[in-house]
Amino acid sequence: MTTSPPRVDADRASWIRQCFLDRRLVRVAGAHDGLTARIAEESGFDAVWASSFGISAAAGLPDLSLLGLAEYLAASTAMHRAVDIPVLADCDTGFGGSINAAYTMTQFEASGVAGICIEDKLFPKRNSFVAAGQQLLSAEEFAGKLQAASEARARPETLLIGRTEALICGEGVEEALRRCHLYVDAGADAVLIHSKAPGPEQVVEFLRHWQRRAPVVIVPTTYADWDSEEAAEAGVDMVIYANHALRAMVTAVRETWSTVLEHGSSATVEENIASVKEIFAISQLDAWLGKSR
Amino acid sequence: MTTSPPRVDADRASWIRQCFLDRRLVRVAGAHDGLTARIAEESGFDAVWASSFGISAAAGLPDLSLLGLAEYLAASTAMHRAVDIPVLADCDTGFGGSINAAYTMTQFEASGVAGICIEDKLFPKRNSFVAAGQQLLSAEEFAGKLQAASEARARPETLLIGRTEALICGEGVEEALRRCHLYVDAGADAVLIHSKAPGPEQVVEFLRHWQRRAPVVIVPTTYADWDSEEAAEAGVDMVIYANHALRAMVTAVRETWSTVLEHGSSATVEENIASVKEIFAISQLDAWLGKSR
Amino acid sequence: MTTSPPRVDADRASWIRQCFLDRRLVRVAGAHDGLTARIAEESGFDAVWASSFGISAAAGLPDLSLLGLAEYLAASTAMHRAVDIPVLADCDTGFGGSINAAYTMTQFEASGVAGICIEDKLFPKRNSFVAAGQQLLSAEEFAGKLQAASEARARPETLLIGRTEALICGEGVEEALRRCHLYVDAGADAVLIHSKAPGPEQVVEFLRHWQRRAPVVIVPTTYADWDSEEAAEAGVDMVIYANHALRAMVTAVRETWSTVLEHGSSATVEENIASVKEIFAISQLDAWLGKSR
Amino acid sequence: MTTSPPRVDADRASWIRQCFLDRRLVRVAGAHDGLTARIAEESGFDAVWASSFGISAAAGLPDLSLLGLAEYLAASTAMHRAVDIPVLADCDTGFGGSINAAYTMTQFEASGVAGICIEDKLFPKRNSFVAAGQQLLSAEEFAGKLQAASEARARPETLLIGRTEALICGEGVEEALRRCHLYVDAGADAVLIHSKAPGPEQVVEFLRHWQRRAPVVIVPTTYADWDSEEAAEAGVDMVIYANHALRAMVTAVRETWSTVLEHGSSATVEENIASVKEIFAISQLDAWLGKSR
């Protein structure tokens, strides 16, 4: 039986590997800073996705490869240090070619995160839900990037997820399968098959042919009503709810500010938002005060 | 008539000074990253408070002077670049003695923010709402820090706010007044009188004796139902809603994740949270795509 | 008559523009941190080149686009704040496509540097003196990047230098000229013509045909014995000694450590290295102590 | 027999502990970035001292606690990743009180460094060689900081060095001894006894009474001619040459730039400074190019 993940870096990565072996679905929440990572943890998620969409949006920027390795690394490290569960770092296209992919692995692994994910789009990439401008790198070149990243690992536990944007870029399931096989051959421990279809059919078809060759990760943003247990039965090993915290937050903050300005005071919102004490609690105030000597 | 604030750094600071001259209440929203700063701006706030409580909490840390100048500067700079309205940086106790206060001014001013605020507690400070351990620096020493910060300004527009924690530390209104007079003598452009009383009486008493010698800033966290127009009439020039975005966000994210995990999918929350397109919009996706040449 | 450059950000950039108008050769020293920038300034250089080669090497990394915008921006900002002379930021290929080039301009300009330089190689680029793997981007695409960067300027003074690696990549002077004309058309204020030939002949030929259409920058690393006055007469407006501080430093530190270890003490090296007091002086210790209040 | 230190984080710290057990003098070189750390390693030093004096000076700033935890952590992390030998981080006074000391330990340990050193001066501290303004914290308070830091360790190998500035602040050897005993009681693994006397007599006296209770570290800046073997025999376990690379570098860069400007070209200096190829080599260019796939 799998118990909760331990704090030590390598063990956090091993724990995800064990879930894969145990066919225990890994539920992952997208986060963009230490606080959202910690809310994910206390909510009961198994791991944190350090989302490039979220980290960019938190900076006030669109997800267009404007931020680079340093910014994602800083954000991922902050999340990793804020929680005990594993953090998986969304590393876009790997910040360049295969040498950059190797460098990416060394830097993120040294920061302690459980693993990284890189995707097979051309750099600079655009967020997968942007209508135009989605372009794939050749499968062979991307496999080279995965190989370089894989070989750069210092710890065997560190996870490398190869993400294909084949479906996003209008290619079919066959091409997605061809790519994912190449990616596992090149050293990926798991594949992320991204789809922006309104239903899970494409993903289901992929899974049927994939036959559990390696763990499969999905990001059901557009096919949100696919039940996670059903997904697990169909062959999914990890499901990432990538952007819901971000989206919930924007709505909540907008409503709060609008009410405050309308009423000329914050009295009306006080009841509906966390108290200052609750913020103290999630910031672990007492634990830190207890370190006083 | 005062119109909206312009983008140029010095002009953003001047605009706040003009509001003070015009007796136009400046409404300020606490934020902790570029995104929360931008929501404050689009909601109609006049300025952003780069809150030490918020920036610490976003990092997963309590507001105990664990973060320092560099982290606050990075966060404040990100907010400043994300918006057109002025950003006021909460600089805790000024990160050391008077030399540090001077350095703080040079660094934050160079980043473009409209001004900084420093407070008269002992370093390392604790958040004002932490029950124990609130200690004041001597008024004279703190005046020295304000003088050093004031003299370090390269632009005359840059704002320096002197914050007294006299009431927080159990001193009376008389001591708060004595301190604030010293602080304005030393170079502060405005004073922030902080109180954690359940009503505004202490602040009102302060204002009555202060007689508008210099602009007054308040942070009505505990006396939330004091109407801002009433406060303005009593002599308040700026009101900071310091932590409501943070608190709203924690509640919203918790509810979202709890629902997602309970239902095994995000279908139920989709209706209640901003869409991916709305995140694109607030991240200014189209403006950035439009820069393609 | 041109006097020394002032401290204000925009004025530093204007001062270089005035030198160009006055046909006064601008001598620039490569630096990689605040200290090497300050030594350049005290030595009498007109400006600092925030070198990607230097910044990478200081991090212990080769100049292969492993570092990105954030690291170069942090280093350039530190240099800018350490000196009064203008800082020109070496921005490699602009960290992506034209949208990234626009973002690069906004970020570096906001930091206060006098200008940026981007080059027409494929990302990820390799240092120009690396034998293999030098590849050019199409001239038209690179002109698009320059146009995007130019249009992103908030201050008209900010300099944009377009650098061609045509000669580095084995193209001839004709192609270099064609490119540089396109680059100036697209918004570059000056062109940098890089060459790794052992003599200045290629550059001289370029200058003869260029006929001072716009200011020309050179980096005479391999043709080190070309006298700068001669270069100025031939039509060069700015000469960058890009990597000599870095190279001098490596030699000096190696010799110092080797002597210390050999002798079992630092007694022998003390005479040949700056005293602790000299480090205090160049770190402006007394000026900072004088800020105490 | 002790062999060279391995790359894995915990092992680097253990290796220093083993040297202490073996009575093998640990020779440490002060560095301030990845490059100077790597030169220290290739020169044959056993470890790197991530010097606050050096890191501040590299930023163009005096060593007056202007930089904080974040800047030192970033610099130390860069050094740690650039070398295989252990890095010891000079953490000034621990960036606040005992809670800050605990936070300092968690952050630096997570970055992978072998250990940290904190000193018993009042914050904000001044460099020990600054004549005026040297003030000690009470021994009991500082012991509390060491205890908090010690208890915050996640790995038992991580080193905690307690540094006394008693002699720097005009106290005698007796007070230094009293303090160091308290510090070891509180959890320090080693003590650093700092002296700015022109000879080693004070330190020798300390060592005689200390009787090897715990490892002793010295920084022989002012008593530079004390032979390290002699020091080892007297009871010293680690000798730090803290600032010689920095000082050598300043002299070398000044001479280089002065020659370049005087001669109007870099031709004269080329022979005396490392070649571009040597910089490529120390930047590990070939190793990185070899990661291409």
Structure description:
4 copies of one chain form a homotetramer. By secondary structure, chain A is α/β, with parallel strands linked by helices. Chain A folds into 2 domains: 9-242, Alpha-Beta Barrel (TIM Barrel); 251-291, no CATH class. In chain A, 46% of the residues lie in helices and 12% in strands. Chain A has 12 helices and 8 strands. The first copy, chain A, has an 8-stranded parallel β-barrel, surrounded by 10 helices. In chain A, helix 4 packs parallel to helix 5 and helix 5 runs parallel beside helix 6. The longest helix of chain A has 20 residues, at 244-263. The first copy, chain A, is globular and about 60 Å long. Chain A starts with 8 loop residues before the first helix and ends with a helix. Chains A and D meet through helix 5 and helix 6 of A and helix 5 and helix 6 of D.
- Number of E-type strands of chain A: 8
The level of helicity of chain A is 40-55%
Chain pair sharing the greatest interface: A-B, 80 and 81 residues
- CATH superfamily grouping of the largest domain in chain A: Phosphoenolpyruvate-binding domains
Helix and strand succession of chain A? HEHEHHEHEHEHEHEHEHHH
- The domain tally of chain A reads 2
Mean pLDDT of chain A: 96
* Molecular shape of chain A: globular
Instruction: Pick out the low-confidence regions of chain A.
Output: none
- Main beta-sheet strand count, sense and barrel state of chain A: 8 strands, parallel, barrel
Counting helices, strands and paired strands, the structural category of chain A is: alpha/beta
Alpha-carbon Rg of chain A, integer: 19 Å
> What is the beta-strand fraction of chain A?
5-15%
Number of continuous helical runs of chain A: 12
The CATH class of the largest domain in chain A, by name, is Alpha Beta
Oligomer: homotetramer
